[in-house]
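Tutorial handout. Part one gives the primary structure; part two gives the three-dimensional structure as C-alpha cells.
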Amino acid sequence: MEEVSCCHCGGYFPPDPRQKNPRYCRKLECQRARKAAWQRAKIRADPDYQANQKRCWQDWCKAHPAYWKEYRQQHPDQARRNRDLQRVRNVRCRSQGRGDPMGMKGSMIAKMDALEHLGTPGRATFSGQFWLVPVIAKMDALKVNIYGIPISYE
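Part two.
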C-alpha cells in the first residue's frame, strides 16, 4: 500500500486500510490536531453543538474563577503578548471602520460605561441609550436606557 503524507507533521505513514481517507498519522500530536480541526468545523457547522460547547465552557469558567488570573501571573510573557496583540486588533478594527456587532462605534473600546453630560452646567442630566461594557471581550455588553427625571426646586 502506498504511504500517505500527514496533514499536520508532513511525514509519511502507511494508511490503515479500514480508514476511507486517512490524512493524519498516528502520532499523539497529529491526532490532537485532527481532533481540534474536527471540533472547529463541527462548531461552525452545527449550532446545537456550538451551544452545548459554549454552555460547557461557561460551566468550567464558573467552576474555575481564578484560572485566568493565575495563568497571567504564572505566564507574564504570554499575558504581555496577548495585550500587545489586542492593541493590534483594536487598531485594525478602528482603521477598518468596523463597528461592534452590538452597534458600538469601531473606535469605541470601553472598559466601563461612559456617559456624556447632556444637561446644563452644574446639573447632571443623562438620558439616552448606553452600552455597559465590563471588559473588552470577556463578557456580554448590556444595553440600557437612561431617562432623566426633571426635578423642580420650588
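Part three, for discussion. The radius of gyration is 25 Å. The first strand starts at residue 4 and ends at 5.
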